[in-house]
């Protein structure tokens, strides 16, 4: 048997806006004329990284640019001094948790959980949590809470780990752990859920303080209430969300990497994909640069009235990537009365709910398809009905057509219909959904968001608008 592991593919993803140009929403000349400003926005976004590192932040300015070269730094440290690297520590803890429990509950909200959810849904078995442990390769189930204050949904998860408040058995298959993720350490939704599940976990481990501490992994800023709680519990593993990396840009810190590694995602390949996108972003000329072309087309389309950006995923697996991107774009650029409105759809599903409006409704949308070249699994083919019925459904002429063939026909047919109605569409093409392509895609979308911010004069970092609801909520609770 060969001991050489096959090299996973590292094909690039592509961005193709040809149909938006053909629809006339954005002219090729306008896009070419924007090139110097896109180049300048790239330079400024990269200079932000140096400015942040050298402490050149202006008074009162939020500058969370350290996410940009984070994948490169994590990989470099892992390759040069493996055992002291952050990635090694993440992988070690992932292995310890994986072997100790059969369910991991991630508590977090916004940027502290949406990236993890995107990775989980894109890269794990679509029914991971429903599979028996053996078929999950010994990897725990992953559940999410603390992203809302929904009484019944929290109770629903409690039913799984402690029905009627009573912990299940101490068998491996009933054991669970929790990852608590909060950069500030003080977000009420996450903090309330932490109390709830911490007290339940304390009962589950029979009051054993050491086991409790080992079953809770906080991921947080260096200081704050969660860091203090972690110290009080005595958690042996606590991961830092580094300074200079904001919540919605934190998917390639322990926030996303630890849960991803626990459920068996190849986090090294994920980071390799992100680093590959960084290279293209830095080096490719504007006209061949997927990040800059994506920004340019979105910006010009918005000026032409397409203020709604639909990210249309042609795979169920990428819906949570779309929701993560909705949050990224909204919190980063929805400021000072400006910013396009993002909207995630899954096609063909949503052609039966939103298709009418996208084809015939207000002309305020740019549709960016996310199209996947190859499925991960063998191709399903339409079977004959022989022995069950005759040709009542009149599909005999399609027998043998595969699911990917039907999806390709749907994609091409939808784009054709939009083109006929001069509806602008563009395509992001993923050769397949794997760690490398998802790493590229997430990094591309994060880079595009900050470049667009610099292009339009909006600071993409920080989310001052979210403070208002927190203030009024806490005032009411403490009245
Ligand atoms: O992008 C962001 O910074 C936000 O979405 C935060 O992630 C979210 O508000 C949660 O904050 P925290 O991690 O401090 O609990």
What does this structure look like?
The chain is α/β, with parallel strands linked by helices and 479 residues long. It has 2 domains: 14-59 and 270-463, Rossmann fold (3-Layer(aba) Sandwich), CATH 3.40.50; 70-265, Rossmann fold, CATH 3.40.50. 47% of the residues lie in helices and 12% in strands. The protein is built from 17 helices and 10 strands. A 5-stranded mixed sheet has the order 1-10-9-7-8, sandwiched between helices. Helix 15 links the parallel strand 9 and strand 10. Helix 5 packs antiparallel against helix 13 and helix 13 (319-333) packs parallel to helix 16. The chain is globular. The model has no long low-confidence stretch (mean pLDDT 96). The chain binds 5-phosphoarabinonic acid (PA5). 5-phosphoarabinonic acid is lined by residues 109-112, 182-184, 187, 190, 246-248, 331, 463.
